[in-house]
Amino acid sequence: MLRVLSTHLFLNHRLHPGLLEIASRSGAQAVEIFAARHHFDYTSREHVVELAEWFRSEPLEPFSLHAPLFPDREMGRAGAPAVNVLHPEKSRRIEAMDEVKRALEAAEYIPFKHLVVHLGERGDGWSPRTIEYAHTALEHLGAFARPLGVRLLVENLLSEATTPEHLMLILDLGHLDNIGICLDLGHAHATVGVGEAIATVGKRVVSTHVHDNHGQKDEHLWPGDGTIDWTTAVKGLKALAAPAATVLEIHYNLNDDPHTLAGKIEQGFARFA
Questions:
Q1: Nearest 5°: CA angle at 34, between 252 and 148?
Q2: What is the pTM of this model?
Q3: Which helix (H) or strand (E) holds 129?
Q4: Helices 128-145 & 164-173, crossing angle to 10 degrees?
Q5: Which structural domain range is residue 252 located in?
Q6: What is the pLDDT of residues 198-209, one digit of tens each?
Q7: In this structure, what CATH number is given to the domain that contains residue 260?
Q8: Alpha-carbon torsion, ordered 210, 212, 215, 216, to 10 deg
């Protein structure tokens, strides 16, 4: 399994080469960059080029980009609406797709292979309109991503619209064969269960978001700090026909000593050895 570190771990900081070097020293082979403007300002050519130049001279691979969740630098805290491609208002869906495309343009400089996309927000329900809006968004974004060499991956969230079963239905009904799934194990644990999620989407899984929780809310803890049965989870993932990338997606804790992060990252990856 490819060992990937999500820069979500450093989300409170501007992403710079020094943070990427922590990932490299920890045993990560690649990174998933979290597209939040205060962290990775995909609208700044200077910031994009700074990181692109670093990647060109280092072995660490830019495996994936996580699509933005908000269009501002405050992650919605100042009132900006979320990036929601399933929103009932057409203008909001168009704005959301435009924001994702802005982030995708970074692939002109940084050769990401995948874009992880959220279909909607936590409170979104399930209806025929859900399928319609999802198909429109994925077809549109896929057409934009393809010339850049980027493949879309949809992620299971905590919403009814994005259960593993519903994601499979969206992709199968739309004949969206080129789109894969990023299986978020923490989200699965808090909803249908990790085992059921793997069984449902296994043939489509390209990458996994690895983090822990206690089964009730999205905590993004280090593996082993929650209640996921990692022995069973790893066994299920290793049984997949094609190996999925292991993407550690941990919530940064201000109490974490930066000097201990590399060791924690190594321990997280060790569970999948």
A1: 165
A2: 0.96
A3: helix 128-145
A4: 70
A5: 3-270
A6: 999 999 999 999
A7: 3.20.20.150
A8: -100
